[in-house]
Amino acid sequence: MATMVSRSLAARLDAINEFDRAPVSSDRLQGSGNFIGIYAGEHVAGTEFVIGPLFVAHGVTAGDLLGGLLVGNLLAVLSWAFVCAPIAVRTRLNLYWKLRRIAGPYLLVVYNLVNALMFCFLAGAMISVAATAVGIPFNISMPGLSDLYPTSAGWVVTVLVIGCAVTLLAILGFEKIARFSKVAAPWLLLVFVACALTVLPQLGVTSVSDLREVADTKIWTGAPMEGRIRFTFWHVTFFAWFANMAMHIGMADMTLLRYARRWQYGFASAFGMYLGHFIAWIASGILVALALQEGSEVAPGPIAYMGAGAAGLLAVVLAGWTTANPTIYRAGLAIQTITPNWSRWKVTLAVGLVTSVAALFPALMMRLLDFVALYGLLLMPMGAVIFADFWLCPRLGLHQDFAERTGRLFSWPAGLTWLLTLGLCLGLNRWMDVEIFFLGLPGWFIATLLYLGFAVLQQRRAAAG
Fold first, then answer.
1. CA 197 – CA 187 distance, rounded (Å)
2. Range of the domain at 208
3. Which of 122, 119, 127, 129 is nearest to 166 (CA)?
């Protein structure tokens, strides 16, 4: 009996069609509400309970924070709308299958392994965020800003249980993830705002006129914590723009936006950027300022509990969940593309297990700013390759999808572009002291130009016989 139930469940999971290797069919296209929900749910989320406090730790001023977030988030929205969404809607392919046509299956294996590993680490950080809330009622010791390894057996158990729950929802596919995000996102935003408003009086805000002085002297003071660089307007702008570099100019969100009826749905990312990466970052910064003032723990769970009690704890759990779900979904598709004999749900399950193990290490959560910048930089060059191949190659008289067209298993123009771009970015960082937050913009243009130059050379040689 148990065997029959197991086979029936496996058959039902196998039947979930997420168009792993084919364009999305017209009957499965989604309306704008799903994209508003999924972007709001993903970005009014667990990362916000970490990134907002890290801005405080890096000593940004209030003026630089507000200005940088306004400009940087606008640039991110425009990147989703004008770079990623049009290609996603025209091809209806996920990033991985589109890249396979351009780069060939051998290079795709390497890229997808790196891609999936980075997404596992990001989702793992979000599971860690949720665990900081679940652990409070059970009096589990929370990791601090300097902790690298698991702090207790209770922490390990909590992380693994949450990881299993998140993975199960990711297995159910895009529509279920979007539905969950639509329900959770509005409530999460209200909790973020409520937490911040609740603790403002304890920081000395008794009227609107006090806000600016308290913001400058107690929250975003311009004085970084020991061991951290001071952030300026430009740090905030470029971080807000490129915090999700892998998703927009790196093209990872082709995997989501291929379901959009129109490319304009890329503007739905504004609901994530300005509700999450603006309001929620500011709100969580206020929370951590009070925690530092009172000498309390600064992990996401404790600061949310300080602001909104049990509702704050629940918000942290759901916020970690709404970010980890689509991230594990993307990672599962990345591995699925290079494991043709595995069902998608089995791949997603395996990815979820790796993610849960990564989540055991709080260093992922506590060094999130640096990690987000690094993983975006690693994946960005292939996004530039897709952009150049789709839009610019035809205008230069070159063929698109040259590897598929000619049966090549490995595209040396794409591979060399990836390696040289990363090498040049490393050089800018090491020898010209360009910080990692600023490397994405020159790196994208470098990758675009390199790929076009190599593609011209390759196709001219092929034409000459």
1. 15
2. 28-376
3. 127
